[in-house]
Structure to design on (494 residues):
C-alpha cells in the first residue's frame, strides 16, 4: 500500500464528491500536503480503490443525493468542495444516443452543498459540453435528447443559482498536458467562491516543444505518450492469431504506417539497444466524426470512461539497421527468407483504438489519447509487411510481393539515408498501469487490488482511470486558489 500522510488537522474540511478511484483526491493531497477529509461515491469498486490509496480519508459509499451535508460536516468549516459529476450524458462522444435526465441533473447537488454548509470554495469538473446543458425533448418512443433550441439554458440557471447563494463564479476549459500530464484531456473547470478573494486560473507550465515559449525556456515541453508506454512488454504477432484481425482493422493500421512511418521525412524514433529502433505512432479506432492519426511525441488524447471515447492502439515500428554484407531485396523481387537474426527487419508499432470506424493512428510521441472505462480497447501494433492498395490487406513474408503500383506501398522506410522494410506486425492492449501513468497518477498508486487484497479486473481498472480527474491539474487549481491551505504555505509559516 502506498504511504499517505496522516497529519492532524483541525482547520477547514476538504471534501471530494464523485471521488471515483481517487484522481482528484491524489491531486488535492499533493497540493495540501495532507489527506482529503471526506470522499463520496456510489460505486463500491471506486471506493475500494480510493480507500486503499487514501486510508485516512472518511469514505461514504452512497449516492450524492442520499448524503446530508450538515450531517457529514458536523459543524466544521468547509474550505473546499470538489465535484466531478458523471459527464457521459453531456459528452459529444455519446453522439445521438439518448441521454438520461437523472444523470445530467447530478450537478445540482452542488447547490445543496452551497446552501447548507457554505463552502468557501467550490470546484466542479466536467466535459466542455457541460456548458450546453439544457432541457430535453422526448421522441415518440420516450427517448430523451437535448433540445437544440434551448442549448445552455439549464447551465445558465445553474450559474445564476450559485450567484444567488453569494458565490462569484467563473469557468474555463483547461488541458491536462499544459500542466505536466501526458494526456491532452481537455475539460471544463468551474470555480465558485464566496470569500471575496479573486478566482485565479493557474498558468500553464508546459507547452508544445515547437512553441516559442518552450524554446525560450519559459515553459517545459509536454510529456508525451511515448513517455508512459512500457516498451518492454512483448507484442504477439497479428499473423499468428487464432482469429485473424478484420480487414478494416488491418487497413487502419496500414494508413497509420503510411503517414507516420513510411512517408514521413523524419519518423519519431525510440532507440532500442545498439542496432535497432522504434518508429511509433497512435491510431484512434473510435469517434467516426473525427478520425485521427496522432504522433507519439505528443500528449495522448483524452482518456475517458465510456466505450466510444477512447479506444486507441499503439503501433511501434522496430527499425533494424543494415549490417555489412547484408543485402536488401528490391521491392519488385520476392522477399528473402526472414530469420531470427535477420538484419533487414523493420517492426512497426502504434496505438490502436479497437472500436469504432476510425482509420487513422496516433503517434506515441503525443500525450496519450483519452482512456475509456468501457474496457481494454487500446492495443499496441508492431508492423509487418502490409499491402496498402486494393482489397488485399497483408502479404506473408514468405511469399513474393504482389504487383508493384506507381505509388508503392510496401513499407520501404528511409531513416538518415538507410532503408528498412516492414517485415512483421505485433499487437497488444495497453496495460492499465500505462493508462494511469498517462493520466498523471504517481507510479506507486495501487490500481490492481483493494485494501483486503481483492483483485480488480483490468476492465475495472480502466474504468477507474477513464473516470478520473488528472491529479496534476487538480493540484494546480487548488494551489492557485487556496495557497494558504497548501503545504508550501504551511512550510513557510513553520
Amino acid at each position: 500500500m502506498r504511504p499517505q500522510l496522516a497529519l492532524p488537522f483541525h482547520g477547514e474540511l476538504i471534501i471530494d464528491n464523485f471521488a471515483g478511484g481517487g484522481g482528484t483526491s491524489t491531486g488535492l493531497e499533493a497540493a495540501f500536503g495532507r489527506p482529503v477529509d471526506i470522499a463520496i461515491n456510489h460505486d463500491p469498486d471506486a471506493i475500494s480503490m480510493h480507500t486503499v490509496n487514501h486510508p485516512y480519508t472518511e469514505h461514504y459509499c452512497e449516492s450524492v443525493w442520499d448524503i446530508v451535508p450538515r450531517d457529514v460536516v458536523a459543524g466544521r468549516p468547509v474550505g473546499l468542495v470538489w465535484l466531478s459529476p458523471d459527464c457521459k450524458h453531456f459528452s459529444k462522444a455519446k453522439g445521438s444516443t439518448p441521454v438520461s435526465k437523472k444523470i445530467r441533473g447530478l450537478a445540482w447537488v452542488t447547490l445543496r452543498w452551497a446552501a447548507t454548509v457554505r463552502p468557501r470554495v467550490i470546484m466542479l469538473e466536467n466535459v466542455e459540453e457541460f456548458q450546453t446543458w439544457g432541457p430535453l425533448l422526448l421522441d415518440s418512443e420516450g427517448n430523451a435528447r437535448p433540445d437544440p433550441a434551448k442549448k445552455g439554458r439549464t447551465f445558465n440557471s445553474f450559474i445564476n443559482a450559485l450567484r444567488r447563494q453569494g458565490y462569484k463564479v467563473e469557468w474555463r476549459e483547461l488541458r491536462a498536458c499544459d500542466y505536466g500530464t501526458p494526456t491532452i484531456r481537455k475539460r471544463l473547470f468551474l470555480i465558485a467562491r464566496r470569500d471575496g478573494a479573486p478566482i485565479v486560473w493557474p498558468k500553464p507550465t508546459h507547452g508544445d516543444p515547437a512553441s516559442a515559449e518552450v524554446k525560450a525556456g519559459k515553459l517545459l515541453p509536454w510529456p508525451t505518450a511515448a513517455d508512459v508506454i512500457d516498451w518492454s512488454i512483448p507484442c504477439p504477432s497479428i499473423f499468428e492469431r487464432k482469429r485473424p484481425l478484420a480487414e478494416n482493422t488491418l487497413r487502419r493500421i496500414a494508413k497509420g504506417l503510411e503517414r507516420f512511418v513510411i512517408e514521413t521525412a523524419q519518423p519519431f524514433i525510440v532507440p532500442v539497444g545498439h542496432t535497432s529502433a522504434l518508429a511509433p505512432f497512435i491510431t484512434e479506432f473510435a469517434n467516426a466524426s473525427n478520425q485521427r492519426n496522432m504522433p507519439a511525441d505528443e500528449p495522448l488524447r483524452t482518456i475517458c470512461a465510456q466505450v466510444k471515447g477512447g479506444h486507441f492502439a499503439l503501433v511501434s515500428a522496430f527499425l533494424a539497421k543494415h549490417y555489412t554484407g547484408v543485402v536488401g531485396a528490391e521491392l519488385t523481387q520476392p522477399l528473402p527468407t526472414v530469420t531470427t537474426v535477420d538484419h533487414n527487419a523493420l517492426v512497426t508499432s502504434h496505438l490502436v483504438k479497437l472500436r469504432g470506424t476510425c482509420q487513422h493512428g496516433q503517434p506515441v510521441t503525443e500525450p496519450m489519447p483519452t482512456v475509456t472505462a468501457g474496457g481494454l480497447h487500446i492495443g499496441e501494433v508492431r508492423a509487418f509487411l502490409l499491402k496498402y492498395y486494393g482489397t488485399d490487406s497483408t502479404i506473408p513474408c514468405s511469399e513474393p510481393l504482389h504487383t508493384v503500383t506507381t505509388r508503392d506501398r510496401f513499407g520501404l522506410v528511409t531513416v538518415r539515408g538507410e532503408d528498412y522494410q516492414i517485415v512483421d506486425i505485433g499487437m497488444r492492449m495497453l496495460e492499465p498501469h500505462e493508462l494511469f501513468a498517462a493520466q498523471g497518477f504517481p507510479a506507486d498508486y495501487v490500481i490492481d487490488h483493494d485494501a483486503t487484497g481483492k483483485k480488480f479486473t483490468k476492465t475495472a481498472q480502466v474504468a477507474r482511470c477513464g473516470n478520473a480527474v488528472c491529479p496534476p491539474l487538480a493540484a494546480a487549481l487548488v494551489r492557485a486558489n487556496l495557497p494558504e491551505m497548501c503545504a508550501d504555505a504551511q512550510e513557510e509559516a513553520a
In short: The CA atoms of residues 222 and 366 lie 8 Å apart. The longest helix spans residues 247-262. Residues 13-219+466-493 form a domain with the Rossmann fold fold (CATH 3.40.50.150). The chain is about 20% helix and 20% strand.
